[in-house]
Amino acid sequence: AQSVTQPDIHITVSEGASLELRCNYSYGATPYLFWYVQSPGQGLQLLLKYFSGDTLVQGIKGFEAEFKRSQSSFNLRKPSVHWSDAAEYFCAVGWGDMRFGAGTRLTVKP
Amino acid sequence: DAMVIQNPRYQVTQFGKPVTLSCSQTLNHNVMYWYQQKSSQAPKLLFHYYDKDFNNEADTPDNFQSRRPNTSFCFLDIRSPGLGDAAMYLCATSTAGERHNEQFFGPGTRLTVL
């Protein structure tokens, strides 16, 4: 069955610390992969996407993600978190349509 | 700026009273989607239009209907809202073709059912 898993429901990091949000997928082939961010009461904003080519992709707001085929993962990273990064993060995969993971809520401590 | 607009941002309705949510886009995308997102959950696809072709998800209740009168506009009609329909409703658009999965989202309409 096709699925997207974000193992961490909630993560808390200190401002300035590094961040990694995990995403694993189960699909028959390599799908298109996305990370979206959602601030409270807002729609989803695309951070970055992977279709093919270089497995390390750069996104907006200083985020990057690495596609690892062997691990069926597409983890999101940021070297230094800012307080404004506090939000809900969704990994999504698509192959004909899009499926979202359950989301990871990020809290940033001062 | 090209964008996806949803109106209203907040909608309050009464149990059983029909309600319509609106989505418009200036991106000229041929695919439009409606998602339901309940608190602390992932968005759940209700249906989408590929041009005028309507595609309903298998588990979308009959209570939810949609109309797309033209490329720019898409409406979500909830015929008899129940308390369980209180949620954020997100509209998204995309282009067809190789990159058709990249979706652009509106800010959402938060629906409250009293």
Can you walk me through this structure?
The complex is a heterodimer of chains A (110) and B (114). With 110 residues, chain A is an all-beta fold. Chain A has strands at residues 3-5, 10-14, 19-21, 24-26, 32-38, 44-50, 56-58, 64-68, 73-78, 87-94, 98-100, 104-109. In chain A, the strands form three sheets. In chain A, strands 2, 5, 6, 10, 11 and 12 form a six-stranded mixed beta sheet that branches. In chain A, strands 3-9-8-7 form a four-stranded antiparallel beta sheet, with no helix packed on it. In chain A, strand 10 (87-94) and strand 11 (98-100) form a beta hairpin. Chain B is mainly beta and 114 residues long. In chain B, 0% of the residues lie in helices and 51% in strands. In chain B, strands 2, 4, 5, 6, 9, 10 and 11 form a seven-stranded mixed beta sheet that branches. In chain B, strands 1-3-8-7 form a four-stranded antiparallel beta sheet, with no helix packed on it. The radius of gyration of chain B is 13 Å and the shape is globular. The mean pLDDT of chain B is 91.
Essential attributes:
heterodimer, A: 110 residues, mainly beta, six-stranded mixed beta sheet, four-stranded antiparallel beta sheet, 54% strand, globular, B: 114 residues, seven-stranded mixed beta sheet, 11 strands, 0% helix, 51% strand
- The helicity of chain A comes to under 10%
Q: From the alpha-carbon coordinates, what is the Rg of chain B to the nearest angstrom?
A: 13 Å
Distance between the termini of chain B: 36 Å
One letter per element, helices H and strands E, the order of chain B comes to EEEEEEEEEEE
Secondary structure blueprint with pairings:
The complex is a heterodimer of chains A (110) and B (114).
Chain A: E1 3-5, E2 10-14, E3 19-21, E4 24-26, E5 32-38, E6 44-50, E7 56-58, E8 64-68, E9 73-78, E10 87-94, E11 98-100, E12 104-109
Parallel strand pairs in A: 2-12
Antiparallel strand pairs in A: 1-4, 3-9, 5-6, 5-10, 7-8, 8-9, 10-11, 10-12
Chain B: E1 4-7, E2 10-13, E3 19-25, E4 31-37, E5 44-50, E6 53-56, E7 64-67, E8 73-78, E9 87-94, E10 104-105, E11 109-113
